[in-house]
Amino acid sequence: MKIDVIGDVHGCIEELHNLFDKLGYKQIHQSYIHPDGRIPIFVGDITDRGPGSLSVIKIVYEMVVIHKKAKYVPGNHCNKLYRFFLGNNVILRYGLETTVAEYESLSKKEQKEIKDMFMTLYEQAPLYLQIPELNAIIAHAGIREDLIGRTDKKVQTFVLYGDISGQFDANGKPIRRDWAKHYHGNQWIIYGHTPVKEPRMVNKTMNIDTGCVFGNALTAFRLPEETIVSVPSKQPLIEEKFSYFN
């Protein structure tokens, strides 16, 4: 089994096409297939902030649900969009407003199609993926070793939001504990959620959210090769969105 774990796309549809090309995939209609049978895995946050969230939904739905040639785990932005589609009173900020604006520009028929696609994709997705053949776990914001195997509320919060402290910095960003520094398991934990300028490998964890929507790059991590493939972003660089660790 060979996989390509793709970092947070956030509606950057052009960069996603470019990454698939660079990874050697062939486009067939609305889908991508690798001649060697590689499986792409989306690490969540496929929508919001970027220019083509609905196009990304269509591709991911086609690959994951229709053709079953890819896998997907949800991120916190996916969770928020799902709650919006449920009719919950969700505040339209932090990028959700861009996806909703795209959605509301569609006809009622097209809206129903997109809503059904995304809700099906989300409802069929595991909270996180365990891949024993490659000794790997894919979770949007990562997962602590003691939480592996669980799916309770505490685990849901962790894999969607990271190891949050409940505190905020001067800019209003949530302060997250650096759980990766304390991970000493022998399984790969591949995640995104926290934008970093370069893929961050700590112990056996790999953060591949290289902030495409903030102007840096879209990144994939390949297993079993343990190699990184990135394409440059076409979005403007917003330096303050990136996290730096000691």
Automatic annotation (TrEMBL):
<feature type="domain" description="Calcineurin-like phosphoesterase">
    <location>
        <begin position="1"/>
        <end position="196"/>
    </location>
</feature>
<dbReference type="InterPro" id="IPR006186">
    <property type="entry name" value="Ser/Thr-sp_prot-phosphatase"/>
</dbReference>
<dbReference type="Pfam" id="PF00149">
    <property type="entry name" value="Metallophos"/>
</dbReference>
<dbReference type="InterPro" id="IPR041780">
    <property type="entry name" value="MPP_PrpE-like"/>
</dbReference>
<dbReference type="GO" id="GO:0016791">
    <property type="term" value="F:phosphatase activity"/>
</dbReference>
<dbReference type="GO" id="GO:0005737">
    <property type="term" value="C:cytoplasm"/>
</dbReference>
<dbReference type="InterPro" id="IPR004843">
    <property type="entry name" value="Calcineurin-like_PHP"/>
</dbReference>
<dbReference type="InterPro" id="IPR029052">
    <property type="entry name" value="Metallo-depent_PP-like"/>
</dbReference>
<protein>
    <recommendedName>
        <fullName>Calcineurin-like phosphoesterase domain-containing protein</fullName>
    </recommendedName>
</protein>
<dbReference type="InterPro" id="IPR050126">
    <property type="entry name" value="Ap4A_hydrolase"/>
</dbReference>
